[in-house]
Design goal:
Elements: H1 3-8, H2 13-40, H3 46-73, H4 85-88, H5 101-126, H6 131-166
């Protein structure tokens, strides 16, 4: 961490690094969850949902890159062993139990809501204390909120299609 960066950071940098590494692990797990969901998805709206899953996967991977860069800037090391990701992540990887688009949407919606909480907490932790980390977390938070909305829209569409098909 640069000398001035240390002077202007008004928080426990070690705790921040632990938090950023947990977020880093969660982004990799989210990437894999979206990517794998895109590979195994079946059912109504599959083509559209798979396209969205792969777009979200790319964005989660981008977030992991931003987090790795920031961890290094703060003098830390991003988690190097993928086996550690599950250990430190609060937002977990949901192994698909059902490949139906509806079930995959629910798994990803839960993960996005967890991510929103993670980045809201990082924003709160860094606001007025670490401007660069705050800006990064705020940008990721915005994208995670967009992901949640997109998944909610697909979920509503899938529910309406199910009702139409089953005449409920």
């Amino acid at each position: 961490m640069g000398e001035m960066a240390k002077k202007i950071a008004k928080l426990d940098v070690e705790h921040l690094l632990e938090t950023l590494n947990a977020a880093f692990a969660e982004e990799w797990l989210a990437y894999y969850q979206y990517w794998m969901g895109g590979k195994v998805a079946i059912g109504l709206q599959r083509t559209e949902v798979v396209r969205e899953f792969f777009e979200h996967a790319d964005e989660e991977l981008k977030h992991a890159g931003w987090l790795a860069d920031r961890i290094i800037q703060l003098g830390g090391t991003p988690l190097l062993n993928p086996a550690e990701w599950e250990e430190v992540a609060h937002c977990r990887y949901a192994e698909p139990q059902n490949f139906d688009v509806w079930a995959l949407l629910q798994d990803n919606l839960e993960a996005e809501r967890c991510a929103i909480g993670r980045y809201e907490a990082i924003c709160g932790m860094t606001h007025g204390k670490d401007y660069e980390t705050f800006r990064m977390a705020e940008k990721i938070l915005k994208e995670e909120i967009e992901h949640e909305q997109e998944l909610e829209d697909f979920t509503a569409d899938a529910e309406n299609a199910r009702k139409f098909i089953t005449k409920e």
